[in-house]
Protein 1
Amino acid sequence: MRACGAAIGLMLVLAACPSADEGRAPAGDYLRLADQDDVPTLDPARGYDTASWEFEDMLFSTLVDYDEAGQLIAELATEWEVSADQRTYTFHLRADARFTNGRPVEAADIRFGIVRVLDPATRSPGAEFFRGIAGADGCQSSACAVSGIEVLDAHTVRFRLREIDPLFLHKLAMPFAAAVPPEEVARWGEDFARHPVGSGPFILKEWAAGRHLIFVRNSNYFVAGVPRLAGVLRLVAVNDDLAWLKYESGELDVSNIPPAEFPRVRREERYQPLLRRITTMRTSYLGMNCEMAPFSDVRVRRAMNFAVNKEKLLRLINNRGVVAKAFVPPNMPDYYSPVSGYAFDPDRARRLLADAGYPSGFSTTLWVRSDEGALRLAQSVQQDLADVGVRIRIKAIAWGPFLEAVRTADLVPFFSLGWEADFPDPSNFLEVLLHSKHIGTNNNTNYRNPEVDRLLDAAGRAGDATARIQLLEEAEARAAADAPWVFLYHPVTYRIVHSRVRDFELHPLRPPRYNRTWLTPQ
Amino acid sequence: MTAVLRRVAWSIVILIGVTWLTFMLAFIIPSDPARTAAGPKADPQTLATIRQELGLDQPVLVQYWRYLGRVVRGDFGRSYLTRQRVLEAILERLPATAYLALTTFVLSALVGVGLGALTAIRQGSRTDVAVLLGSLVLLSLPVFWLGMVLLYCLAYRLRWFPLGGFGVAHVVLPACTLALGQAAYYTRLLHANLRTVLEQEYIRAAHAKGLPPRSVYGKHALRNAVIPLVTILGLDFAGLMSGVVLTETVFNWPGLGRLAVEAVFNQDIPLILGTVLFSAMLVVMANVVVDMLYLAIDPRIRYHRS
Amino acid sequence: MTPRPGQGRGRHLTWVGAAMVGLFGLAALSAPWLAPYDPLRAVAESIGEPLPPGGGFLLGTDELGRDVLSRLLYGARISLLVALAATTITVSIGVAVGVVAGYLGGWVDTLLMRATDVVLSFPALLLAIALAALFEPGLMTIFVVIGLVSWTGVARTVRGEVLGLRERDYVLAARSLGATPGRLMISHVLPNALPTILVMGALSTSNTVLLDAGLSYLGLGVPVPTPSWGRMISDSQTYYRIAPWLMVFPGVTIVFAVTGFNLLGYGLLAWRERGARHA
């Protein structure tokens, strides 16, 4: 009896015993990455976060892609034509692209991918990007035949749009538009997210949930010489501290720099050649619900902007950011934001509040993601606002319910959020976040200004690029004066790499790409 | 035999109670499962359809019956976040927790029994008092703090151990963290039991017979004191799980405890309830196993049977 | 955790325990006067870089420039409040269940004890975080959640005590005089179970404080920026390598408070044992 128990116990232990080389890269040039959270999904129709996109990029291909400078280049497509009225796009696919199950990539696969995104059953967050395609607006309540995507032959696909969309090519560069094999989706169903099959430079070899993901080179990738790595190992459940220590002991190739280490790393000589930094196309802000008192009064909103000390916030994040003057980040190509921003001026804030009828301030609730960094910032803001008489209660909730709450009418008066550009165009900020037709989706502040709407609509129709930019600049200036946001900062991303890593660059728009990265032998 | 059957029957009753309690948890949470399934932009029509599909308009008992049916078939629902089957996600993480739990158990049993015996033998001495006081303080330590302190001192400062993550060597610090608290508890229990046992007649008789001390203490006293410990083991499995949740978080150990914390952090309700249910079922089964062991090794019962 | 008898010694530690608890209570109550700074405001210019103990800050500052000592003192208030409120709920439920089950016996006893077994099967912290996550965060939630997961130990011990008490002479006498079960339970059984209830109260409080610290550590305790010891520890993790004091001090206070309650509880238990032996 006792022997029995002991034997069972021993077997259990042996079964559970991790293998000795757990967490160490397989033989060959594997790039070693790590992060705290597991990758949520590898299904290109569902992923809409940096972690998912980073690896979906590696596994799937789209018609067009971005190069290191953020310019659009061909990927699956060899060339394309745009009609004179700019509403029809015809793409010619390359003949040598294959899925990792062996079969060639065809135009029908592109169509399948996008139709799947539009299908409400998939619940894809990317559906709204493709509603401009003819026949796509009927996809509200059931799967539909999107007539605007035509498969002319095995290697030609044509898109017909309902109206001009200067950003359509950018939308086709998103992982939502990746070529997806229908037979694999049919085979795996909901589990396709964990068993993805694509045509990209890497293949998913192993996904041990909560522990690691291993990707290997796709030797049949249609671009010769790419990728240069044998594979990528992405560890999970490694927090910033642990990642740093692993990096220092040479076990990681790329790492974030934890706040505790950052001042030292910035100062010491030996780290400088290994640092990579990029100003992201992202703006962190505090949104004020323009339909809820007291934020319905523009003076109150401006007062909040004057009351928050943004330089102090930057010190909290080791100065890894640039103070935001307005909506659009300063590194947006071909765009010069005309707004001068709101300086830190508590006296002016108090005067404005008094003018608006709140001489002794008011109370409200700030909704925040339950994330340590976000909460720290919220507490700093809380102190600043308390100085001008605005008493804030901080409400922390998880990301999913947070987004849902922000989009519910009359619920959230004040919230902390950020917006990252999906593509390098100012309208991706201004129209998506400020046009009244987007109230209920991404216009979370319920901002409504008919003049701004008119300017944005005109910009959407403008054929001439210069005129378009001018209209957008004017729209931004007006909206900034209305201050539906407390503009905080644009984050700057820092990474540090192992000395053996070559050709690793951060991308302003997307998670890092590893196609060209290689490792020197040690 | 009847004792065994009776025990198993009661366990099934308790298991059903456990599923009922978990089901009631799902019932009383404020959010609307139909809305969560449909997404924020669904219209009332869609909501009504989904409500009917999920059977949310049925009476409570009917819903519970369907829920029980699904649970028995292993369908714990799908995670909101990753859409993975909850039971699959749990079973993926279970080996890591099992490894940690077993290592902890071995460590704490060895230390606990050893120290407990030591103190009982040397009652009243300074060692005795020191160990008892020390174990009291150990019991008063928050396990996550103990873990962090050990991590800082032994892994970061002294570099004796790796800093979190998963692997054979990586289990030492988390297991020690958990084991210290458990060992403290076992030490005190064993001490109390041994004292009672040592005062019993038959021990004095064994002394009088001139048996060597090792035989007296080892064979008779220790064995009789350890037996009640075995039952406490099963009970303490629930306590161990609680400690596991915190320890896995501190050391980034990819087990069931961390899964539960991540689920809570993401408000992933099916996953939260699934881990809660699964853990409770584990506890019930652990108790049954322990009771069987107890029935098997308790000499008094064996004596009655033979 | 069910306390085991047999330790008549150790009752002297009750005084030490009582002193520690007293100190904790005193610190908590007099925080507004003792705390040198406002716990919610940045009082140092050191945003982003915690200051070590020294200078004007006895225990240093955190990354938001707030004084650690002041936060610890105000954190004691929260801990005390949670401890008292949650323990009250725990003991109330536990005593109610234990007395009813122990006194009435029969199927009521079986039903209540099996229900207790069901609740006991859930690991306390796991159940607590599930409940805390599903409801609005706040003080009330914490009281209720902790109370709901901790009552089982009290119930079992009290039931055991009542089983013994109900056969005592005065109970039998009162019953023969026609007193209703309810009245018997409240007027005769309950007062005599009081010593056990006190012991369980002290031991429960130590568990409550630990459970609250665990919940706060996981981010499910009192909402930020109200200082709470568990939260201070989890916040300290980002900076522990350059500011270990942020991690050490809140932990020490928790250990202090919990040890105090444990000593008090085990000491009282030893008193009872000694009393029981002499009886």
Protein 2
Amino acid sequence: MIPGRFDYHRPNSAQEAVALLAKLGDEARPLAGGHSLIPVMKTRLSAPEHLIDLGGIADLKGIRVDGNTVIIGAMTTQHSLLTSPVIADKLPIIAETSAVIADPQIRYLGTLGGNVANGDPGNDMPALMMCLDATFTVLGPKGERSVKARDFYLGTYVTALEPGEIVTSIQIAALSAGAGYAYEKLKRKVGDYATAAAAVVISMSGGKCTAAAIGLTNVAETPLLASDASNALIGSTMDKAAIDKAVAAAEAITNPAHDARGTPQYRTKMAGVMLRRAIARAMTRARG
Amino acid sequence: MAKTHVTMTINGQEVEALVEPRTLLIHFLREQMLLTGPHIGCETSHCGACTVDMNEMSVKSCTVFAVQANGANITTIEGMAAADGTLSALQEGFRMMHGLQCGYCTPGMITRAHRLLIENPNPSEDEIRMGIAGNLCRCTGYQNIVKSIQYAAAKINGVPFHEAAE
């Protein structure tokens, strides 16, 4: 399978990349890790005339800490997230999620920025970014702006990115001390997208849940922030009644596609099961 | 759609060539460099038969453009044995433990396991299985592939290899 012809550009800075995108317009696509784009170019579902390879831009790579915030360059790979001491210390749920994305070879090249910016509801990072209340820094022809992950996903492959804009970095507050977390994903095999998946972060104090956030992957046209579900946990002792209520609230907002992974009814129930398992595992990790 | 000039180090040798931007790394290696060790299996980044080592990463060369590998250091299965033909520990392991049947997946398996053992010289069986999760074999059921990698790890670590009881 050979993709259509295109011209290749390899800018050295994000500004240069954005200038190229502005100049070349609709016929240009940015290239990150390439493991979503190159397959659709091979099948000719996508045939951009220009590829702007972001792989040569050093500023878009790496993980740094500013106070309580972890700043991750958009071109940071899943493999880097999996092996980063900063992520292991401050946001271990990200490494837990990276580990269930695709396979080792793809994780060496696949990037956080590509995963969050593509707008594919099957990607795992978007729901996690919503759960963690991440902020995306976006650069475009009109300059730089910030977009909350919770405001970013508008539809399948439709995001808040304007034409010519790219995500340059992702800012996430470190998990608070003692927070419990888990990402649970049901998939048919290694490398598959989720049948359903759930991201959970909770804080406990004096036997009660003081904060909770829940994200759901691949059970609607966009990743979902399950606010009613997390509200059902906050203030509770995380007893069975509260968890049942949270699971029911999460199942109520799903609208999964009927595909080879199952019927909408099945995938909704699996979202509930993944949420229940994620809550149980997050509770074993929570301190306080 | 002009051709692009690329240089790379492949199996220790510096090469330069003109490539069309749409040329995939696997086609460049097989058709322009005549390195037919990396195989084309699924062409959809699932099977891992095309795995090569690029800048200390295992990558599926069917899903990388050759232009993206400009300046890269690449090792293929052809670069695994010593110059005098002595097999690498992994190659020896696959031979001794019968780690292949038809052999189609073997170059990708060995190239991937090569990077796995550099990053984790003493992997558990589970770490081996997860480490080669991006490589499909339709013959062996993976049992002997895992043993082959365990054999190589033992050899690299200078300890005797004991086959686990089944």
Protein 3
Amino acid sequence: MRRAAVYLLALCAAALAVAPLIVLALLAEDFASVFDSRNLTLLFNTLLLAALTAAGSVLIGVPLAVITAFVALPGRRVWLALLASPLAIPSYLGAFTIYAAFGPGGEIEGLSGLTTPAFQGLIGSAIIMALYTFPFVLLTTRAALLNQDRSLILAARTLGIPLHEALLRVALPRAGRGIAAGALLAALYAISDFGTPSIMNFDTFTRLIYVEYNAYGLSQAALFSLQLMALVGLVLFLESQVGAVRERPGEALLIFPSRAAVLALLASVLPILMFAIVLPLGVFALWLAREGAASFDVAIAWNSTYASLLAAAGAAALAIPVALVAQKGFLGKTLERLCYFGFGIPGIVMGTALVYLGLRLPMLYQTLALLVLAYLMRFLPLAIGATRAALDKLDNSTMNAARILGANPGEVFRRVTLPLTTRGIIAGAALVFLEAMRELPATLLLAPTGFETLATYLWRVYEAGYFGRAAIPGLLLVLLSIAGLVMALAGEADRDRMSTSGPQGATA
Amino acid sequence: MYRRRFLQSAALLSGGTLCSPLLPAFGSSGVSVDGLPKLKGNLTLYLGRGEGGLYENVIKAIEERNPDLELGIRRGPTAALANAIVAEHQAGVERADLFWAVDAGAIGMVSEAVNPRDLPGDLTGQLKDGFRYSSWTPVTGRVRTVPFNPQRVGAGEIPSDIVALTNIDKRVGWAPAYASFQSFVTAMRILRGDDATGSWLQGMDRIARRYAGELGVVMGVERGEVDLGFANHYYTLRLKAGKPDARVGLAFTDNDAGCLVNASGIVAINGSELAQNFVRYLLTKEVQSYLSREAFEIPMIADAPAPPGLEALASVQPPRIDLTQLADLRPTLDLMRDAGVL
């Protein structure tokens, strides 16, 4: 009975995620030709960008994961937060500021007289994407590394293998799943992001979708979106093939570096932070100084926060049943996978699909409720991922013990499962909050008329050319996102503690 | 910077700026805001992306003049709003009373889909001949021009036929992804047919350098990266306003797509008197002269002079074309992609 209710809720979440796909299919129906040679180029470009982004994020993310997981640096938490903070900056802001800073006539040339090479095309897009997606790899790899017991590496060391080789040959192979999961997230991001490739002038599926959309080829744009979905589906399938490795519980490795080594590590980390964090914030500060701060309505920041909080709460509530059913059975896993599709639909197409959907429910159309629903459809996967990760960590024997002691399943969930996964759920909700704060295309189309958010306000002043006015809301957006990120990391920290604190046995 | 200047010119419809020294140039042409009925009630305006700051200033001024007007504004990319309006109309859930956009093509698509009530003759009669449409109202115009660098090309060297430009031994800057350029190609298709347009694109591609937008084209001409280019007129005028000694001149072709006059416009979707009266405000000499003065856009009301710096417009003969036809963009994009320029 209760079980049926859980499945029913999960089914609702999946239906919510698939609904835009159905709208897209209906819109695409009007269009005849399905695939032509131009698509091949786009497909190739898109895959190339995804592959390079994934490779770049692994190159940056994995070494940083090893450092943050194993090395006893002073202020480890701070370093982790700093290194994860590119997640708090929407990559379109990063791409835009890097574009404005580099190249002939850029801000760097204006300040120092040095001409820097311009970022553009495939390489420019891949570098920028990698700079803003490597935290995915960092976080997933780090979690996998922290799960490993140090005894194997110590054994390798006693057998005479140098430390770096032991890390390379013993630790990293076992973290393969974490690395792959992060790389696939980065690839997914690269496939569905529109802002970066269009600023870098590189042709991908999302750019073509945008061109068609602006030429009123809605059905064609919908068709291309469905083709893009096929790519997303492929990535999700690959991700599902990455099997879980259960590690024996134990203590994680800890390396105490020399002072010189610490300095060398910091020196190697700094350029990345300079590019991904300092540069965008610096450009904003420069514009602020140049054009002066204009009055800013605080209500806009509140609108953003309020809508995003509602979305985060809703996502947390819906993610629990989906994550529960995803733990067992084919049906549950399928429902979970279906929920992931919304993540891959380009924002503007999703916005339009939801306009059509919203018009079927005129009482909801252009209300806050529909906007929050749209956020849910797009970002639910983030909450599901975090909640599932927390649930997977739980030891079944705890729940079984509660059952033996006479608790019914509902009580077990309320008094054992839920309290033990709260941090994970909050971390997921925080990620949803983060994404909802910066969502733009669907917000423009679906928000109540006159409801301005930080992202829509930024868009408006950027359009009008008042770069100086973009500074305060831009910085606010980053600050509020960092608050969300800290919450997400706090959940992460809790998972670390649970998985490393002694022999609580994962033998089920 | 011209941006700074329009920050300072917010209260354009208030008494003070009415006596601005630039107004006499407008002479007797156009209706004054003082003669218009006060706007009372609720209106929802869908505002497509465009001259963001300037249009916002106009709207703010209208709101200040009409305290009983409850104006809701939905802003978004032009195409997205146009698609939304059409979807709303099909579903019978109409929310927009007015749609104001910089792209005549979007206006054409919306007015075709919702088929608004005909505008009264005394309203359309205020417009320049050739720009009177019964279902929508052009607000300001922009003409296609050939900006050139006078240190590299003499004005006399530039052919007056856009087709002849493919034979010129110069470097040309263009922005194929920019909507105004695409409208220009659409106009060429309508005037000359697809085949001629396709071979023109291929011919130009050999000597052209691609820019992301047309401000970039004009700046490239000024810096000497290219010798001449294709761009809407106001980019050159705005550049010269901020940098009077800029090395860029304006040439026009004659009676072909190269000197097409395109327009931003507004549709009164539900055709109510209130919505139509809102449109009247945009055609007042105050608003028209403001947009002309600050953004160098071409006023659309009859007998109004060209913006400062564009006096040569009087001698240009633009092609006659129904601007709503410019909505037929898909074949244009196919053509451009086949030619390898997009």
